[in-house]
Design a protein that fits this description.
The chain is of the alpha/beta class and about 280 residues long. It is built from twelve helices and eight strands. Helix 7 crosses helix 10.
Length: about 280
């Protein structure tokens, strides 16, 4: 008699079967291409409760089961001040997906909400600091975040349009404030539309945005610069389906000889330094 799969097993099966080409394959490709995981690593997968970090947790869990080199993984959930309903939803999803989360609390929302300028920037900085600190105390040498392909593209366009600089999002970064710690982004090559398709296929409900600024003000999300860029790229994609792939490839083929100025390792350089040589 064929054994019936439970809900978690069906979700895991969907990653390996139906969405293998769009989720599992690009995830593994990024891990290998950018050398994100090495034997002996102890990685803290940081879960916010959204679709991206929850999928990342499942992918990391499944990779650990099948990989031919050993590495450890911990699943961290920082409660920055969620309303009870949001925290409960994270706990329900973790139980459903059989992700053994470790929850700890912080006052990030309280502090960020009291800031007069750039509360979102402050919130992001504080959250990452708390996660680094917790992971390091647990003996981890890396934290994994759920930034995906579209985050990479949107960040690049936003930096140029609104930050007046050409700046990308690296697949891995060494921490400047926590020696020996590194941040990795294993979903670097996974498209958001494919994450959404996986979520909808399995009938899963994750947090959209748990920020106190947007719990009662949905318009705040749509008014953000990132949302503007999302809509712009969506419109451009209608005319050129490969527009985002072109941006992504350009990040791997930067020609510094064609730029009048650039910055590397904190130092600013000008083309006149070498032009007459």
């Amino acid at each position: 008699m064929k054994r019936e799969l439970d809900a978690c097993q069906m979700i895991e099966r969907s990653i390996q079967k139906k969405y293998r080409k769009t989720l599992w394959t690009p995830f593994v490709a990024a891990v290998k291409r950018y050398e994100l995981i090495k034997p002996g690593d102890s990685i803290a997968v940081c879960i916010s409760g959204g679709k991206d970090s929850m999928l990342l947790a499942k992918l990391m869990q499944q990779l650990q089961r099948v990989t031919d080199f050993p590495f450890e993984v911990r699943f961290l959930v920082m409660d920055p001040g969620y309303v009870p309903a949001n925290r409960a939803q994270i706990e329900r999803n973790a139980a459903l997906l059989r992700i053994p989360v470790e929850i700890f609390e912080s006052n990030v929302f309280e502090v960020a909400n009291g800031a007069e300028k750039n509360p979102c920037y402050l919130c992001a900085r504080m959250r990452r600091g708390f996660l680094y600190d917790r992971a390091q105390k647990l003996g981890c040498n890396k934290i994994a975040l759920g930034h995906h392909f579209n985050d990479v593209i949107e960040t690049t366009v936003m930096a140029m349009f609104y930050g007046a600089q050409l700046q990308g999002m690296m697949p891995k970064v060494r921490s400047a404030n926590f020696p020996g710690m590194e941040l990795i982004r294993p979903l670097y090559c996974v498209h958001e539309d494919d994450i959404v398709a996986w979520r909808n296929y399995n009938g899963l409900e994750f947090l959209q945005c748990a920020c106190r600024f947007t719990e009662n003000a949905a318009d705040a999300v749509h008014a953000s610069k990132r949302q503007e860029v999302k809509l712009l790229l969506r419109d451009l994609r209608r005319r050129n389906p490969d527009i985002e792939k072109s941006v992504f490839k350009s990040l791997h083929a930067v020609s510094l000889d064609t730029f009048p100025g650039y910055k590397t390792q904190g130092q600013t350089h000008d083309f006149l330094e070498w032009y007459d040589k």
